Recover the amino acids of this structure.
């Protein structure tokens, strides 16, 4: 399969974001093609499209949608006929409507929920997702106040319970927080730290 075919498959939704990410690293032809693309939009700070694509989080819907959009532009510039799979755009827009500010929903989590309830109308789906997120992403008293991007840990597709956060700035030269989570299945604790 050529580099163009791999890119086209991702843009058209024939391969998953995870499979595409693996191909970026494994296929030298994909790397070469993406490195040659250096005329990028102003919001992209990386020097070329390869560097941009390897810096993205393929669990994050915004990242997936942005990569898909940029790759669609590459295909169009090369006059390659393709149809953009709207799934990631639709999921990203849905995420903006249902996701609390203190959360960054993993794409596979949201995709699974949408698939479970695909028979619901758009408004019913939004209402159900908001309620489901409240049930799944539990916290003891208040949600986390992240210093950086939300990083809620999941185990086997299930979110851990947020217990609280602690200012650990005195242990660091920066403003730092430790976030404590509980894995109900293993009855164990997990800590996420962030600094800025």
């Amino acid at each position: 399969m050529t580099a163009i075919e791999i890119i086209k498959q991702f843009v058209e939704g024939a391969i998953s974001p995870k499979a595409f990410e693996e191909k970026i690293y494994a296929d030298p032809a994909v790397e070469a093609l993406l490195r040659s693309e250096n005329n990028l939009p102003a919001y992209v700070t990386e020097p070329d499209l390869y560097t941009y694509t390897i810096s993205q989080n393929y669990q994050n819907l915004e990242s997936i949608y942005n990569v898909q959009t940029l790759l669609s532009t590459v295909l169009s510039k090369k006059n390659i006929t393709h149809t953009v799979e709207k799934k990631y755009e639709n999921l990203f827009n849905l995420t903006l409507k249902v996701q609390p500010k203190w959360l960054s929903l993993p794409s596979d989590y949201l995709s699974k929920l949408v698939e479970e309830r695909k028979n619901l109308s758009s408004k019913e789906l939004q209402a159900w997702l908001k309620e489901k997120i409240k049930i799944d992403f539990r916290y003891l008293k208040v949600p986390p106040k992240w210093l950086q991007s939300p990083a809620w840990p999941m185990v086997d597709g299930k979110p851990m319970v947020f217990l609280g956060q602690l200012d650990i700035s005195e242990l660091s030269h920066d403003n730092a927080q430790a976030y404590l989570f509980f894995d109900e299945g293993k009855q164990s604790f997990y800590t996420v730290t962030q600094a800025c």
